[in-house]
Write a sequence for this structure.
């Protein structure tokens, strides 16, 4: 799709330098792809909110016995 937009020349030049891209089109497309990717990642993280593990790591670390919990035999 052909679109005409006015861009901040200094901002575009900096973006091209940072990305190493040589065309305005490639730079704008990368910026749009990155924006969409970041937004999707943020939505995915928001969807995970509240799904965390609820437990007591300190109790887990001290409340087990290798012989019984892992069926480990002591070396003789």
């Amino acid at each position: 799709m052909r679109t005409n937009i006015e861009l901040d020349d200094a901002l575009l030049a900096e973006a091209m330098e940072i990305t190493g891209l040589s065309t305005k089109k490639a730079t704008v497309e990368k910026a749009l792809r990155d924006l969409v990717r970041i937004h999707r990642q943020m939505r995915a993280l928001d969807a995970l909110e509240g799904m965390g593990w609820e437990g007591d790591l300190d109790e887990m670390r001290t409340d087990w016995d290798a012989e019984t919990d892992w069926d480990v035999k002591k070396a003789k």
Remarks:
- The chain has a mean pLDDT of 88.
- The helical segments are 9-19, 24-48, 57-62, 66-69.
- The CA atoms of residues 57 and 63 lie 10 Å apart.
